[in-house]
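Transposase: structure, please.
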Amino acid sequence: MTYPRSQIAPPDEPGFFHVVSRCVRRAFLCGTDKYTKRCFEHRRTWIEDRIRFLAESFAVSIYSYAVMSNHYQIVLSTDPREAQLWSDEQVAERWLRVFPGALSWTSDKRQRERIAYALTSDPKRLQEIRSRLGSLSWFMRALNEPIARMANKEDECSGRFWEGRFKCQALLEEQAVVSAMAYVDLNPVRAKKADTLEDSDHTSVRARISEREKCSYKQRDELLNRPLKPVAGLDANAPLGMSESSYLDLVEWTGEQAHPLKRGKLEAPTQDNPPDILWSLAKHPKQWLRRVQGTESRYYRAIGSAEALMAKAAEIGQRWMKGVSSERARILMRQQTE
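Here you go.
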């Protein structure tokens, strides 16, 4: 049974989300298709560049992403309230950057100014656009539709390229946000497409490491010790309660632990004991690993503690939500270890 997206992502409220969009018709998003032997590796850049481009126009912050062979995953936050603070000119500029319409057919400066002016002169239309720039659904639409058109053109076919609805999970607490980020960043490792975080191309963790490598030693220390911020989009959202260095250590350690249902893990362990930051996210390493590894399998519409999940269920008129039993199992595990 499908539910209105607005139950999980209310259009006028800020929130954190884990989204997944998958290809259909056995289509290959990126990589090499083992059936046709065609290489689509360049499409990874399409996706990554589009994510970063849209993050500069929409009221979103991108915290984590990974582009895989037949799907991509993103952890992001949306803040519709931020879009309400933009001037009419800023709204028009951001919208026309994403949906240029007639602007794409002309380079005449006066004509472009007239198109922008016509938009700012229509308050009803402008308010609708302002709302869309803070919408998760419109962000995903602006991401998926151009990629589908380019892929279909390249494949010389028509029809659906993506599944009809992208999967969306609300992340109800900071622990849920960080565990989802780690899950997404370790996607290539679990799929045995990378042996190290540095080899995990087209992921946010690789982008964070690349940024660190470009810095001088002094700048590198400042970067690693700063609060964990988005890799793209709004910086206005409150940073997460850990440093960049702590997050990278956490992802590294998590990736070194074998997943019972997956083939891949990071090679050459760098640390035997869990990083200190883990103890602020879970009472026991097994609890942390259980949440990370169960991001998609143990949870469905939302991720959080049992209390947060039940509160979300009550908010949308349900008596239960998938993941509550898993969270209660974590509580029992914690009690047994105390």
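Notes: Residues 87-132 form one domain.
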